[in-house]
Each structure stands twice: as C-alpha cells, then as structure tokens.
Amino acid sequence: MAIATVNPATGETLKTFDPLGDAELEERIERARRAYHTHRTTGFGRRADLLCRAADLLEEEREDIARTMTTEMGKTLTASRAEVAKCVKAMRWYARNAEGLLADEEPAAPDVEDSGANRAFVRYRPLGVILAVMPWNFPLWQVIRFAAPALMAGNVGLLKHASNVPQTALYLEDLFHRAGYPNGCFQTLLIGSGAVERILRDPRVAAATLTGSEPAGRAVASVAGDEVKRTVLELGGSDPFVVMSSADVEKAAATAVTARVQNNGQSCIAAKRFIVHTDVYDAFCSRFTEAMAALTVGDPMAESTDVGPLSSERGRADLEELVEDARVRGADVLCGGRRPEGLPDGWYYEPTVLAHVTPEMRIHHEEAFGPVASLYRVSGVDQAIEVANDTPFGLSSNVWTRSPEEQRRFVRDLEAGAVYVNGMTASHPALPFGGIKRSGYGRELAGHGIREFCNATTVWFGPSHAEPGPVGGD
C-alpha cells in the first residue's frame, strides 16, 4: 500500500510520501537508542513537564489536527475533536499518576526477613526502544495511549503508523519535538509493513506493541517470539451487546446505536452482535432499527453528519461481502444493506441491521468493520452467554439487566477483557484495556499498561552491620 493521504469522502489522493530508505531508517533507530540512554535517567517531574507541554500544544491545535484526521480516514469532525480531547486527558492523567504507578513495591516485613534480606523491594525500570505498529481508525488516540505511559516510564518510541494516515503520524513526531523532548525520544517511521520485521529483529529495539488486524498481530508476535521480545497485542473484536428482559429497553436501544456506529462503525470495541431476550426483542428491534435508519450519512466535515465514509474502498467491499453472504444464507436486512444514493464518489455505506443471523453465516464469526449490526433472539441468560461467547474474539462486552443475579452471571461467565453493565464500552486512562482469545493479549492504559514495558526488577540487600542507604529512582 502506498503511503498517502486519500480522502475517503471523495476517493481523491491528496498527498503521497516516499518511504524511508535503509540508511535513514538505520539512523533513526540509532538515534532512538541514544535518546533512550538519556531519557531513562530523567526524573518523573521532568517527564511530566514534557508530557503536559505536549498536551497543551495538542489542545491548542485541536481543530487543525481534527480536520487532518477526518480528511485522512473519514471519521466525522465531531468524533475527531472528541478524540483529541481524549488524548489530552490521558496525557495529563499519566503525567499526574505515573510516578505513583511505578513506585517501588515493598514486600511485607516477614517475607523480607524470610528471604534472608535486610531489605528488599521491586523497582519498575524502562525497557528501552519500543516499536509501536498502529492502525488508522483512531489515528491519534491509539498512539497516545501507548506513547504517554511509555515516555513517562522512561522508554522511547518508534511509530510505524498505518499507511493511509501519514500526516497524522508526522504531526505526532512534531508534537513531541516541539514540546521539548530530546531528539529521538519519539520518531515516526514512514515505512511499509515489510520493514517491520527488520526493525523488530534489531537488537536495539526492546519490545513492540501492535493494534490492528489478527494477521498483523500474528506476524509481529511470530517475529517477537523468535527474538524473545515482549509484545502487547490489541486485535479485532466482535463485542456482544446483551439486552435482558429487565433492561431499560429504550435506553439500551439508544445506546446500542452509538455503540454500533461510533467511528463510522470502525472500532474494535464497537458493539457488533446484539443479543436480545425474546420478551423484549420486538420492542428493542423496532427502536434500534428505526434509529439506525434515521442516521444521516454524508460529508464527515459537516456538523449534521452522523456517519461518514469507511476508510477505504477495500474496507467497504469487505463489509458488502459479509452482508451479502448473510443475506443469501437467510438473514433479513431490516434497514440499509447498500451504498447510499446521492453522495459523491466516497466509500459510504448505509447503517445496516441484520436479523436471523445464524452460525452458518460469515458475519457470525468474522468482525464487521463498519456500521452493520447483527441481531439474535435468546430465551434466557444461559443462551445469551452461550451466543455471546460463540466468537473467536474476546475484547469487551455490554450487558443490560436490572437483575443482580444476572449481572453476577455475566460478570463471571462472559469471555472478554471487559464487561460493561448497563452502559457502553469505552476506554479510559484509569482502566486497563485489552482482550483475550484472538483479540490479543497484554493490557494498555492504567497501571497495567505502563508496567507492560517495564522491567520489574527485584532489589535485595543482604544482612550487614549498617543499614543500606537510600536507593534513588531512575
């Protein structure tokens, strides 16, 4: 794939970029290595000052970078502005909390004594140069939720961003540079996917994080495993949205629309499979389908637009194939299911609701990356859990019920990295984020995320006649 900005609303190629040559790539990796040996020794106060300065700049430039994101990948301008605000919030959160999250951990005194030590503790130290392979769907947020904790921990970053968001990728490097980070602390690599293996095998690169497709995750994990390097993977999702008979159906249906079409339906944590108790199925289906059909599809720059174009022509074609496969195998298309009329030559697709989805259909097991919802009717909590878990993915889940017993069952039995009860899945800097099964492994955000790329170092002092002196931080 060419490294280029192609406007999904029109199909027009606006700007192209040449990939880095071998010599320039080597120079950047070496620059990152040198930067790490300086950055790792800075104190948390200095790191926090730098990250806050970057957050301030990002907030000041919100409108410009929001328009860039919308131009490059098609999300509505309203969604782009919200993404910028979310990034600023996370950066300031890590600036405030990183030192506490990485504070030395002291075992209980009896355990220290039993180990034969005069003193023992665990210290979190940075790993080094981290390669981040990031996707296009949240081109700012996906990077910041890696970069903010990584930089606060004392690591440095190399960003291989998706090839269709090069201007956003370059903005991020420039943002950290203007905030005052030393040269090499955060660099964007304009490269194709074929260059990732070479970087990951380089001994100067300590670990990698990837958010993206399952095939991309398998490729990175395979190389990292061969090199015995740590990875964090956040891959696909086909999240269930369960509505039980005691639920507030009106609120659940309204939330379901947002949960399905957020980011034009192109979100790993978007609800995709709507599993509804038979007692409230008809009421939910009616409200949900009517609201989906009423959404405005159009120019993502327009304030009135609810759903913009998909990010690429290939992405729309993949979605169309899933819907057509379901239709010919017996699914009912309650609304949508086609390209909207009267719009320019962009990659638009109507919000779509499919009923009577069965396991024989591809969409039952594959991720629908666009504004397409699948409806299932179930008779009780056991069947709801069975259908919800009948997926190769396990990123997040949503459950609507007022029953405490049902809530306990879902929290205990749903196979996912998160269970949201009577609300919509959303990432937050204070809560760990990640999945199980083919949705990946490891966690981002919160204390779990910042420690993923740290060396949990055991420090042990043997008995002596003198008390050990203080051991300073990195």
From TrEMBL:
Residues 3-459 form the Aldehyde dehydrogenase domain. Keywords: NADP, Oxidoreductase. It comes from the Bacteria. The keyword Transmembrane helix does not apply. The keyword Electron transport does not apply. InterPro entries: Ald_DH/histidinol_DH (IPR016161), Ald_DH_C (IPR016163), Ald_DH_CS_CYS (IPR016160), Ald_DH_N (IPR016162), Aldehyde_DH_dom (IPR015590), ALDH_GabD1-like (IPR044148), GABD/Sad-like (IPR047110). Pfam families: Aldedh (PF00171). Belongs to the aldehyde dehydrogenase family. This is NADP-dependent succinic semialdehyde dehydrogenase. It comes from Streptomyces zingiberis.
